[in-house]
Amino acid sequence: MKLRNKLKISFCIMVILPVIMCSIFAYAFFKYQATTIHQLYEVDSGELLDNFYSPVVLMGRMTENIYNEMKEVAETSPWQYNSVDFVKQLDEELQCKLSSIVVRRNGLYTYVSDNLDIEKLDVVLPDYEAGENISDEGIYKGGDYQCLVKQIDFCDSYGNQYSVSIITPLKQAIPQIKKFFIQVLISGVFILILTSLLLNVWIYRSIIKPLDRLKLATQNIKYGNFDFEMPKSSNDEIGDVCRDFEEMRVILKKTAEDKLNSDKEEKELIRNISHDLKTPLTAIKGYVEGILDGIADTPEKQHKYLMTVANKVNDMDKLIDELTIYSKLDTNRVPYSFAKINLKNYFDDCCEEIGMDLETQDIDLEYRFHATSDCTVVADAEQLKRVVNNIVSNSIKYMQPGRKGKISIDIYDEGDYVHIIIADNGKGIGMDEIPHIFDRFYRTDSSRNSKQGGSGIGLAIVKKIIEDHKGKIWAESVEGEGTTMHINLLKDMDKRNYICIEDNRKKEKK
User: Fold this and answer.
1) Strands laid side by side in the 147-155 sheet
2) Per the database entry, which stretches of residues form a coiled coil (predicted)?
3) Residue 204 sits in the same domain as residue 235
């Protein structure tokens, strides 16, 4: 769930849930207190609800039954109001109804409830009305007194005038109603606290916990620990940030690993170059010193020494050229110049040149062209020749000692592709090394002897060139029997377009 939706839901819950819960609790408390009021004050719950906002009427209902009983006593046996015990019993009943009683005979007070102030009674109580009763609902006395008075005026058989009054102060609150408001207030506060707590827990789990995990992850990234994985996150905005952070961590980890590998390769390259340059330089230095010291005292020796120096210089020049090409390939600045090439004419010339070089090294070359004579490809002739020369040179380096060297080149037409196979009968490559032979600076022979030395980037250059030609290269090998290189190049179909890619540096000069 999205974070914005959670916030909307939180707002609705915060507003609606307390209202609903408070209403439920208020209704339950009201029903409970209404039952209590009915039992104590004999007021029906229906009347209680109707008169809830009219305390005068409600107070009048509370003493209605006692008032009717007192009227009946006044009519049948008025003499009982002369009995202190009887009046005291009425007082106790009225105290339970939150009211008090006052009895006057011939204008004199004969009984007054303990909680009443006699000085105020003359103002509060109405005068005796001969032969008439005050309204059953009583009269309301406002001002400083705030009370409801119900009075019965009657005479006994001796002509004594009695006024029996029920006084109900309105300033006091009915305990049950007071409890009701307190219960509603407490339950409302409790519901608000509980709702806030639940929503805070929900929001905490949705926002704070993921942010804490994200903070921990950033600290791990800060100290270089790229292996710390972000846990699975919810489907919201915070989760999106966590997933983006996890993707960033993976990219940073790969970048760091690539940098380590690159640094390792660069160190290996420097070590290899240092070794491969130092070996011919040492030889050149030795032969030059031999000439200068007069050791080569005959023209034949001098010629031999100079030829050796020339060969060493050529090896160094080839190594530097290879490193230059690799640098351009690595930065995608190879000056490719694509053109249509007739494959048969191209490989006829190429293999004729290679065959002459191999003949001087006592290595046989077998060349077979199995495609049609008009088969063409779009390629850079110079770079394609570099591919063939690098593969052949690699085969020469790893020829099996004591065995007649043999290299074969076969060209096949396979539909949309031209399949070039270059095979030798050299040492072969181990199965565990085949996946790495196209890696930069990888060498199957780490001894780096003078015959098999090299930078280890020859096949990496080959792979890069073939891939830039939208082709594919792979190797098969059996240790002790030889290695076979397979190259697939797209054929040039009818009306096929091609482009020439110039060196970026040339464009800049222009």
Assistant:
1) 108-112, 100-105, 161-169, 147-155, 139-141
2) none
3) no
Q: Could you tell me the pTM of the whole model?
A: 0.48
Q: Which residues sit opposite 478 in a β-bridge?
A: 482
* Cα distance from N-terminal residue to C-terminal residue, the chain: 58
Together in a domain, 149 and 238: no
Query: Between the CA of residue 128 and those of 68, 124, 131, 142, 163, what are the distances in Å?
Result: 19, 13, 9, 20, 6
Whether residues 445 and 386 fall in one domain: yes
The confidence band for 366, taking pLDDT boundaries of 50, 70 and 90, is very high
363 near 405, Cβ under 8 Å? Answer: yes
Nearest 5 degrees, angle CA 188-CA 190-CA 195? 95
Q: Where are the alpha helices (DSSP H) in 370-439?
A: 381-397
Residues paired with 476 in a beta bridge: 484
Q: Assess whether 41 and 92 both reside in one domain.
A: no
* Residue 481 maps to a domain: yes
Is 221 domain-assigned? no
Residue type, 127: D
Torsion 30-33-38-39 (CA) sign: positive
* Pair type for strands 147-155 and 161-169: antiparallel
* 393 within a domain of the structure (yes/no): yes
CA distances (Å), 469 to each of 181, 473, 489, in order?
A: 88, 11, 7
Query: What CATH number should be reported for the domain holding residue 277?
Result: 1.10.287.130
Cβ atoms 399, 405 nearer than 8 A = yes
Q: Give the bridge partners for 108, in sequence order.
A: 105
Burial class of residue 20 (count of CB atoms within 10 Å of its CB; 0-12, 13-18, 19+) = exposed
Scored b (16 or more CB within 10 A) or e, 149-183 reads bbbbbbeeeeeeebbbbbbbbbeeebebbeebeeb
Judge if 377 and 449 occupy the same domain: yes
Around Cβ 104, how many Cβ atoms within 10 Å?
21
**Segments forming the whole domain that contains residue 386:** 333-509
Backbone angles phi, psi at 162, to 5 degrees: -115, 140
Model confidence pLDDT, tens digit, residues 93-126: 888 888 899 999 988 999 999 888 877 887 888 8
Of 57, 37, 41, nearest to 135 by C-alpha is 57
Domain count, the chain: 4
Count, in order, helices (H) and strands (E) of the chain: 14, 12
Are 162 and 30 in a shared domain? no
Q: How many residues are there in the chain?
A: 510
Q: List, in order, residues 6 or more apart from 33 with CB less than 8 Å away.
A: 176, 177, 179, 180
CA distance 404 to 364: 8
The candidate with the shortest Cα–Cα distance to 84, out of 106, 113, 125, 107, is 113
Contact 393, 358 (CB under 8 A): no
356 and 472 co-located in one domain: yes
Structure confidence by residue, pLDDT tens digits, 184-229: 888 888 888 888 888 777 777 777 777 787 888 888 888 878 787 7
